[in-house]
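queue> pop job 88
queue> type: inverse folding (structure -> sequence)
queue> payload:
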């Protein structure tokens, strides 16, 4: 094209109508600068003896703030102090839009990084920053992560029975409520049910521990028989799960998974403690029982080899325990490449903000496998409007911008934290000789 013809072409280009031009300008101009003005820490029992810690990050734009969860009921005071005295002052004046940069720099700010308290603090910040970004964009966070990959997030229900008949009844109740995925625990006394010798019974050391005593071989013998009975009664359509809570040691974990294979489990959770992850290679060699692992993981080097060596089928971190949405999204992407799925932990002690953070990663990730359910009483829905809702086995977010929920500070303040018995410690299970059983 010669110079004269090029000039003619320019002259023939239609002028953009004024209104369209304004609209284009509005959509392409940069957002005005934003800074973090305040970091508030909000604790509450939710009226139900929860031990929740939330962070609220306020920005220089009036009314624009974000909320995050630091869910870890066992170290509440340490997390509150770390947020109030350390992270909060460090964040003031920074740009909340630089989520990845803040995630990195906040993580290295303590020099010694990772670990539960650091991760909880990081997660609370991270969720609040994503909340702010989504509100600013006028979009739910999942839109910023690439949009929905599914219509809703499937959840697994919790069922349990003191005996085989009541276990079947609990599974049938879950099915009637619309759940396709049901975790079945057995016996009384929490996790490890089916493996405890009653208090005072059995052959014990003189003058020693007399409480309920966990016995690995008893557990390995009991639980497969329970699932044999449940499968015989409810068939193979419901997808059944079971959580061992790290109670077994190496070869017993291998044998347990081998014995559970006929019952076509959706997954067995935490059959080994994080200190014994190498045994997953042995499990893979003897059976195809799917493995879900990682509720207590706090460091990437716990889950990275399990995923990249395809030794597990579901990674099961709590989003608030690994550093928030930013890290959960990276884990999900790693899982996608290696054919592993996500099963983010929620659990009964956990809060709606952590649940919603999980939801945004779940619904936008191809690697999603399942989400643990958690339902909240009416006063929590009032205190945290926009809570995700579970209907017929699926979790639905609010679709509002950001995380999609809010926190009524006045209502939260009406339910202060209650004193923690035993300093808030997780209970310690013991074996017949009084030695500690890993949780
Ligand atoms: Mg668990």
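queue> result:
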């Amino acid at each position: 094209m010669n110079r004269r013809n090029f000039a003619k072409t320019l002259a023939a280009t239609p002028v953009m109508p004024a209104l369209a031009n304004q609209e284009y300008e509005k959509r392409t101009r940069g957002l005005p600068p934003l800074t973090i003005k305040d970091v508030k820490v909000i604790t509450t029992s939710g009226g139900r003896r929860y031990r929740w810690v939330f962070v609220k990050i306020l920005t220089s734009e009036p009314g624009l703030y974000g909320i995050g969860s630091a869910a870890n009921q066992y170290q509440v005071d340490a997390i509150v102090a770390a947020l109030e005295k350390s992270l909060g002052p460090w964040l003031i004046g920074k740009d909340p839009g630089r989520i990845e940069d803040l995630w990195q720099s906040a993580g290295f700010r303590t020099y010694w990084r990772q670990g539960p308290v650091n991760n909880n603090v990081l997660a609370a910040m991270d969720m609040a920053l994503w909340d702010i970004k989504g509100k600013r964009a006028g979009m739910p966070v999942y839109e910023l992560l690439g949009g929905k990959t599914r219509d809703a997030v499937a959840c697994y229900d919790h069922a349990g029975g003191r005996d085989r008949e009541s276990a079947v009844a609990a599974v049938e109740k879950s099915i009637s409520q619309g759940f396709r995925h049901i975790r079945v625990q057995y016996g009384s006394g929490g996790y490890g049910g089916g493996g405890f010798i009653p208090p005072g019974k059995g052959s014990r050391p003189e003058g020693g521990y007399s409480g309920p005593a966990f016995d690995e071989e008893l557990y390995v013998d009991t639980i497969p028989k329970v699932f044999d009975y449940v499968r015989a009664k409810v068939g193979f359509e419901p997808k059944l799960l079971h959580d061992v809570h790290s109670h077994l040691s190496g070869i017993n974990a291998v044998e347990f998974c081998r014995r559970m294979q006929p019952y076509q489990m959706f997954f067995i959770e935490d059959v080994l403690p994080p200190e014994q992850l190498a045994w997953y290679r042995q499990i893979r060699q003897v059976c195809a029982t799917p493995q879900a692992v990682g509720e207590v993981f706090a460091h990437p080097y716990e889950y990275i080899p399990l995923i990249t060596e395809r030794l597990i089928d579901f990674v099961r971190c709590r989003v608030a325990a690994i550093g928030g949405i930013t890290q959960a999204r990276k884990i999900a992407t790693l899982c996608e490449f290696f054919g592993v799925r996500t099963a983010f932990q929620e659990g009964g002690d956990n809060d709606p903000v952590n649940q919603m953070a999980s939801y945004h990663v779940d619904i936008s990730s191809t690697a999603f496998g399942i989400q643990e359910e958690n339902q909240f009483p009416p006063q929590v829905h009032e205190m945290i409007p926009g809570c995700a809702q579970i209907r017929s086995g699926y979790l639905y977010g609010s679709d509002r911008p950001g995380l999609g929920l809010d926190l009524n500070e006045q209502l939260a303040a009406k339910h202060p934290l209650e004193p923690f018995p035993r300093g808030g410690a997780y209970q310690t299970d013991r074996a017949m000789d009084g030695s500690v059983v890993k949780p």
